[in-house]
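Reviewer 2 asked us to include a model.

Predict the structure of this chain.
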Amino acid sequence: MGVTSIIRELGINPKHYESIIHFFRSTSWKLSKLIKTWIGIVCTSGLLYRVHNSPLLIGDGVDQAKEGRKMPGVKKLAQESENSSKPRYIHGHRFGVIGILLGTPKKFFCTILSARLHDSNSIISEWTGDELANESHVVRLVREACDVTKKIGEKCRIALDRYYLTVNALETLSKFGSGLLHIVTKAKKNAIAYEKPVRKHKRGAPPKKGDKVKLLDLFSSKADSFVKANVTIYGKLEEVEIFVADLLWGKKFYYPLRFVLVKYQGKFSILASTDLTLSGTAIIEIYAFRFKIESAFRELKQVIAGFAYRFWSVYMPRLDRFAKNQQTEEKVAAIDCKHKKSKIIAAFNAIEGFAMFAVIACGILQMVALRFHIVISISAFRWLRTTRSDIPSEATTAHFLGKTIFDTFYFSSDLPINRFIRDAQSDTHDVSIA
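Predicted model (structure tokens):
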């Protein structure tokens, strides 16, 4: 809903209109403190679902097309997707997102903890004091996952797409993970690993790697070593064949990984984990939760409209869609006026802030659905022909709150949010919410 709709529905005095629309550009709040507070709320909610005795983080990137010519951070982005409906290149923003698994065995949610702009204009990021301004999307995501893990304060695992299995990601993990974070991801079928080196009694430096191993060849050469196992995948107990091997991976880095070769319904997959204590079935179950973040993206876009922002600055150089990203950054770097820089930074921060507040709104819906699913399910506010779970979706919960929010205000007039809204209401407004 727009600002005008909020003022109209809550009876707020129109004099507050400008204050509301300027909220996202305000300096009264900081994104870093907002993320830290939100992580604390989620982790103390009592709704965390631990997978094999550890909280499970889920990370991914999401691209949002934006046509704004004077919108900070808009770049030409390449979309690496197997979905034919997505164009190869778009102009827009790329967000790096870190979520955590909440819920019960009946239903799980990926509650997003952090959403930051990645692969945006590095010059603007340097103006904001971002120490990761020049880092790639992969490195930034792993680094932010390490920071989230430290805020949680206990050992975590993170499920990532195969796009994030890179040497740079593993180097960042070993440097900033502090042994608290482990990655579970998928490897490409043409991946090559190495056996552990064998020390030979000869002069010279000890070898860093052993013989080369083509992982895809193991499906045939180790066919007799595969064992059958029952694994829970997407909520169903499935029978798979697996083979586990601890090998070194990464050119000139040789990081130890546990590879799990999986045969499932006639298809071959290769999973990898930096946690060598996990069993093969545990790695499969953890990676199966990765798709929950895709569901979170869908709800964030369709239910919350979390990327429906339009923040821009008149001082931003006009985007030339046919120019290279480097040329756009050169135009931004040429700006030397402090006033212009501050206005561009304010618009840039507003974009990140809008997305983060939308993430919090979506997370609140998920926690309400988990805590009050009985109240929502017995209510006759919405008829559903079929019900997949006792726990409602974000859309159903949002619809329920929209139908009952004014009753809640009326019967619970002592709520702090009630007093806050009343103070902003017009004295001449006929209808009060309490």
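The domain at 3-370 is CATH 3.90.350.10 (Transposase Inhibitor Protein From Tn5; Chain A, domain 1). Confidence is low (pLDDT under 50) at residues 429-434. We have added this to the supplementary material.
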